[in-house]
Specification:
The protein has three helices and eleven strands; from the N terminus they run E-E-E-H-E-H-E-E-E-E-E-E-H-E. It is of the alpha+beta class.
């Protein structure tokens, strides 16, 4: 993943790679390293962090009590879009996600709260290709 240039590359065999446009945020520029895909979900529920709620208190109006706490049910209106891949380092959740978006016009910009956003068609394609335990490399951006 190349957050500075807003691209995610899925490396295939034979020296080939698929390139997807992405949107990233301030935390996306701050975190780099190697992780693995720990789990994947279709139409995932969204649970905003305390920090997101502090920055955007207006979001609380759209939250509901879900099995995992206060959040937004998965579906077309969810900020996580059609699919999500959850990245871990060892036994620790990085809180870093690769997910779809309900705001596709923001691809190519710095907008999210630390995750990698993709248009829903692209994240569905990636989701179908990536397996659990796939290695993910996030390049340092040298920004910030």
């Amino acid at each position: 993943m190349d957050p500075l240039h807003h691209y995610l590359y899925y490396v295939e065999g034979g020296g080939q790679a698929r390139r997807y446009g992405i949107a990233v945020g301030g935390e996306g520029f701050g975190w780099s390293g190697v992780a693995t895909v720990h789990s994947k979900q279709e139409w995932p529920d969204w649970y905003p962090t305390k920090e997101i709620i502090e920055r955007h208190p207006e979001l609380t109006a759209g939250l509901k009590e879900l099995p995992g706490g206060q959040g937004m049910p998965g579906g077309p209106d969810s900020p996580l879009g059609a699919r999500a891949l959850y990245l871990w380092q060892g036994n620790k959740d990085t809180l870093y996600r690769i997910h779809g978006t309900n705001e596709p016009w923001k691809i190519g910009s710095n907008v999210s709260s630390g995750c990698i956003r993709m248009i829903n068609d692209d994240v569905i394609d990636l989701y179908d290709r990536v397996r659990i335990s796939t290695k993910v490399v996030v390049l340092a951006s040298n920004v910030g």
